[in-house]
Amino acid sequence: MKISYRSLYCGMLAMVIFLNVTVAQQEGSVLAPGWFMHRDAPNSLYEHYYHQSINYLNQRKSTVDKINTLAELQAWQVKKKEQIKKAIGEFPKAESLNAKQVGKVNFADYSIEHIVFESRKNFFVSSSLYLPKNLKKPAPAIVYCSGHSETGYRSDTYQHVILNLVKKGFIVLAFDPVGQGERLQYFDPQSKKSKFASPTQEHSYPSIQLLAAGDNMINYMVWDGIRAIDYLVSRKDVDSKRIGVTGRSGGGTQSAYLGAVDDRVKAVAIENYLTNFERLYQNKGPQDAEQNLNSGIKQGIDHADFMIARLPKATLLVATRNDIFNIQGTRETFSEAERLSKLYGGQAANLSMVEDDAGHASTKNNRLALYAFFQQALANPGNVVDEEVTLPTEEQLKVSPTGQVNSSYQSSSVFRLNKQNADKLKENLRGQASLDFLKSSQGKQQLKDMTGFVSMKPLQSPVYTGRILGKGYNIEKFFSYTDAGYILPYLLIKPEKTNGKFILWLAEQGKQDVVGKEDNFVNLVHQGYTIVCPDLIGTGEVGPGTYKGDAFINNVSYNLAYMGLQIGQTTVGLQANDILALADLLKREYAAEAIVAVAQDNSIASLLHAAYFENPFQQVIALGKLTTYQEIVDTEYYDSNVVPSIVPNALNYYDLPLLAKVIDRYSFISTNQESLKGEYLLKLLQAKSK
User: Which CATH class is domain 432-689?
Assistant: First the structure.
C-alpha cells in the first residue's frame, strides 16, 4: 500500500494540532497532573446534589421511623398528600371533555371504541376503550397508563395485559401520554416520527419552558390521567366505585401519582417503577421530567409516600429483581409502607408486593399477581390465567385519521399552551411594581429561595498547584474548598506590572474558554489588569461530569437540572454563591479592592443573580448573548445550553433584563465576535475610567 506525502503531511499536521490543543488544555488545568483525591471533580454537581438529597431523605426517615400510632400516620398522610399536590401544582379548571367516539372495532369477545377527549381546552388526548362482550353492568374499570413506548399503549407488552384484563371482565381505558403514540409534540412529517430520539426527550425538552413559567410536565400528565378517570365515571356502564389504575415503567410513575392524588382510585398496581431516591441516585440517577417533583425531596417526599398517602386502599407493588429501578430500594420502600399499613389493623392486607426474576420487563408470574389483585380489590372474581391473545393490528389501534391528534384535530401543544400562559405573565412584569418588588428585601429573599441560594460562606485558603509563564504575564493555578465540600478551581493571570485592578471573568464552559485563546486576555494584562478565571460548579474541571441520564439532549443533561429541582436548588444559585465567595477570597488573599465582574453568554445569568444578591463589584459586565427566560419560553426549539440557567417559576416574578435594571454599575455588550471579546472589554473599561 502506498501512502502519499500529502496524506502523510496532513496526518502529521492533524496530530500536531491535536497535541497542541491537548497540551493547552492540560496547561490550563488546575488539577492535572495528579490530585488523585479530586479525580472525580467533574462530577461535583451530581455529588453535591446527591449528598444534599441524602440529608433530606435521612431527616424524612428519622421522622417516619417515629410514627407508631394511627393518628400519627394519618397526620403524615394528610401532610404528604398536600405536599405532593402542591409540588404537582394547581390543575386547570375541569372544562367539558368534549369526548367523541371516532371509531370502533369489533372482535369475537370484546370491542374497542376509539375515544378522543380534551383534557385541557383544545388539548386532545387519543385513547381506546376496551369493552368485554356480555358485560355485567355497571362494571369495574381500569385506566392503563403507558410506559415510555414510542407507540404509547399500542406496545405488544401493554396490549397483552390490557386484553387479559378485558377477558376477565374489566373495562379498560388506555390513553396516550404526552409525547407518545398519537400525541407527539415534535412530529416530523417526513419521518413520521418524533424529531427527538425518545419519549423521555419528548417529555423533557418542553419541561424547561414549563418550569420557567411556573408549570411542570407532571401536572400535564397527571391531569390527563384524572380526566381519563372523569371520562370513565361519566359512562353508565362503569361502576364509579370500582376504579383501578395500573401501568409499568413510566406508566408506573403515572399510576403512583394518580393513586396518591385521586381519591376515586380504589386499587392501583404500580409496576417496574417504585424504588427509593437513595438507591435511584446511587444507581441510574434521576429520570426524565415527569419523575421529579419541584422541591419534592426537600419536603421529605420519597417513593414510599405515594403508597403511604393512599393507605389503607388497595395497592400492589410489582417488581423485578434485575430492574433498572433497584430492587433493594423497592424492598426498602415496601417494608416502610408495610410497617405503617399495620397501624390500620385488619386492612393492612390491602398493601402487597410481588417480585420475579427479570430485567425491566413484564413477566408471567407478575401478570398473574396483577390480575388476581384487581379481581379481589375491584370485586370481580374469575379465572386467573395469563391467556395467549391475538393482538389488534396497527390499523385497528389507530385512533385519529392522520395518526396524530395535532394534524387531525388541530390540537394545541405543551409549547403553545405554556407560551399562552407565559404571555399573560409577561404583561405583569412590565409595570413599576415588578421593579419595586425586586428592590425590596422581600423580593430578594424570594429569589434566593427560588434559586436555592444560601448566604455566602468564605472559601478556604487557596491551594497552589503550579503556573504557566507567558510574555509579560504568568498564570498561577489554584483551587479552594467551598463550604459545601466541592472545590473551586481558578486561574490567576498576573501582569508584570499591575494597575491594582482585578477582572473576575466567567465563561460558559469555564476558564478554558478564556485562557484557551491568548487574544482574549493579553491586551488586558498588558494594561495591568489581573484576571481571575474560575471553573464554577458544573463547568470545566468541576463539571458537567460523566452523568448523562435518559434526557441527554443536544449534549446537555436535563436530568442534572431535575436533581437540583428535587431539593430546591439550581445551578444558578450555586454558581452565584461561588462567584461571591471567590470575590471575597480575592479581597482577603490578594487585597483586591476594585473588582470588575465579567460574564460571557450563558454564564451571564449566574453573575446577574450574584450581583443582585450582594454586589461587591466595581462594575458588572455581560458579554455576548443574554438569553432571557421569556425568549426560552417563546422559542419552540430553544438552545439546550440554557438549561443550567433556568430558575423554576422565574417568570411569575422576574426575567433577567428586569434583574439587570436593579443592579448598579451594569453594562451589556452584544457581540458574536469571540476573538474580540477581550478587545471590546478593554475599550469598555478604558471608557468607564475616563
Answer: alpha beta
